Amino acid sequence: MITIARIDERLIHGQVAFAWTTAYKCQAVMVIDEEVSKDDFQKSLLEMACPAGLKCLIVDEVKAVKFLENNPNKKFFIVVKHPNALLYLVEHGIPLESINVGGLYFKEGRRQIEKTVYVDDEMVDTFKKLNTLGVALEVRTTPSDTSIDLMKLL
Questions:
Q1: Which percentage of the chain shows pLDDT scores above 70?
Q2: Which CATH number is 131's domain given?
Q3: Which portions of this protein are annotated as coiled-coil regions (predicted)?
Q4: Is residue 154 part of a domain?
Q5: CB-based contacts of 29: which residues, under 8 Å, 6+ apart?
């Protein structure tokens, strides 16, 4: 069971590690990222940032689907850098009711749509696909922020 799926380019950091995992009770934090899953140094940093008592999994998209299918009763907090990773999950049978978008930062070719959300055309296309598949998309920086419908910002 996925308690929350969040897009945050910083992956696990103070806000994710404490505010979000507290608000959305989970047993494990799952980072889904192809590059990071192959980088032992980055993996060790993320594992250290994960709150005590929570399992930390750092996997690519294929392994994420298999792990989620094999552990339907475990509560996961999923965090990714890019919406494509979550689209992959949905297209491979992993149900997602909603996605929280909170940390997509300025890069060349992106435009700002909210305080901490900058998107490019590829992301917009991915968000539209997710929306078409019935996934609600919201923008919130912290759990206590008011939820904003991402699709109204695009």
A1: 100
A2: 3.40.35.10
A3: none
A4: no
A5: 12, 16, 17, 21, 50, 51, 54, 55, 56, 57, 76, 77, 79
Q: How far apart are CA 42 and CA 95, in angstroms?
A: 28
Rounded Cα distance between 105 and 107, Å, is 6
What is the number of domains present in the chain?
1
Report the catalytic residues.
13
Cα–Cα distance measured from residue 134 to residue 90, given in angstroms and rounded to the nearest whole number: 10
pLDDT tens column, 21-48: 888 899 999 999 999 999 999 999 999 9
**Which of 79, 86, 98, 84 shows the shortest CA–CA distance to 137?**
98
Q: Is residue 151 included in any domain, yes or no?
A: no
How far, rounded to the nearest angstrom, does the alpha carbon of residue 108 sit from its chain's CA centroid? 22
Residue 115 lies in a domain: yes
Strand stretches in 16-110, DSSP E = 28-32, 55-59, 76-80, 98-103
Q: Is the pLDDT of residue 18 over 90?
A: no
Residue 90 sits in which domain range? Answer: 2-145
Q: How far apart are CA 28 and CA 33, in angstroms?
A: 16
Residue at token pair 């990714």 = 80
